[in-house]
Description:
single chain; alpha+beta; 7-stranded mixed beta sheet; 28% strand; globular; DUF4919 domain-containing protein; signal
Amino acid sequence: MKKLLFLLIWLPQLLIAQEIKSITSDEWNQLVDYLDQEQWEEASKTSFGYLNRLSKEEQELDQAAMLRYMYLLSQSGMMNDRKLSKDEAFKNVKEFKGKTLILPGHPLETKQGFNVIHPANNRADTLMITQSNHKATNILCFEYVILENKLSMAEFEMLKGKIGRVKGKLKSIHVHGNFLPRFQLFITKATMEVE
């Protein structure tokens, strides 16, 4: 059931991803499987390998933005599992600053929770996602999203329960936490597609 939900969250974006000819649908599926199974090392190697395969032109496509986020998430998972130091993980992703990321879809909720998009500080002008593992025992990223077209709380409440997908520029990235480290992302110039 978890895998089905995970695939549904990524599926609309993966269908678009077929524009990149150097990555087959079987390869995309394998990467999603690694992420779904929280096999962070395999997901990291695979997503990094795919990113390196892309041409300069393909680096600007949405698929590259998805791969960057997948790599970033897997780096955070490895850091959280103590397979990478905080310095190593940060060094591996710091070049993504200023680049576009596309996050997987998440349900929109008015209250804070794991793996949902919710208003930060009860205001819809900044959204937040607390990205965690499936069991919600490890926080992988705190993601703050500043939408280009602001939403009022009333507008956001009308979207509650729908799935939102965020695309935006990574303005900054930091490592937080000592015992269980994770990334803190600030994403600006963001748009949110709602289904």
